[in-house]
Amino acid sequence: MERQGKSTMGFGVLPLMEYIARRAFLAAGLRPSTVTLPSTSGDGEARTIHYWAPPGDPRLPPLLLIHGFGPMATWQWRRQVGPFSRRFHVIVPDLLCFGASSSSPPPSESAQAAALLDALPSLVGMAARVAVAGTSYGGFVAYAMARAAGPARVGPVVISNSDLLKTAEDDGAFLERAGGGWTHPADVLMPLDARGARRLMELTFYRKQASAMLPDFVIRDIMKKLFSDKREEKIELMNATTVGTDAFQLTPLAQDVLLIWGDHDQIFPLDKAFAVKSCLGDHVRLEIIKKTGHVPQMEDPDRFNKIVLDFLLGSQGSPSNEHNH
Q: What phi, psi does 25 have (nearest 5°)?
């Protein structure tokens, strides 16, 4: 009986996380839905993207929030949907191989971007221009969307803690920072035991997390639930990423770009922010959020939200400005 109680306690944390996130999204007027993508393969197999958005046609300028590799898109953006939805038609998709979206075949970040662009007519209409914001891996996708579609379709771009210049050497340095026995970044970023989970929390957050106080057996159960789902697909997804390979060349964007970084990021260190900024052209603003790590939108949401809203509402040619004219 004790073993069953322990397991139930572990899994009880996840429904609580899901409840908290879901409540934030519902309070912001967002509802869950799915969109079927046009078939790109000969087998005719339908691919779907699950997303949250206000029902009906957009009455406000659209803003796409793209999640990273961490658990649940809703959990990563739960502190943003309320403030952002007062000025924007906020859309939060699950990327392919995540959440309730289709999971095969595992795509590159450019293919993720293409899938989101394919979904846009159903999400915002044929002509609407959408602002995009991506965190970590989601920043890779946001960049790929902006580059592929151009400024007529994708407007201002927010990229948070995304090392668009990542190389194999950076992966090696990350494994050194993580310390002890990991051979691939996926081992660190998708832990299945309590030791790995605690180390990932230390690398991700600057501030001590309440979840670090949980007993090992609870953390282990949570990790197995979070990271065993579609695990092989996510590992393939990491391997399919073109950032850091010869197939990818970082080039400036025509759009206004806001680059946000936590000053204590141990996954993509702050020095990479300046290197990325120098490669992205003249339309780039870099904002560093102090006393945060890899996810400033979670650690200092008030500061993050103010920076993003000020940028989006003031951006030249932003969707909101066009909407108001």
A: -70, -45
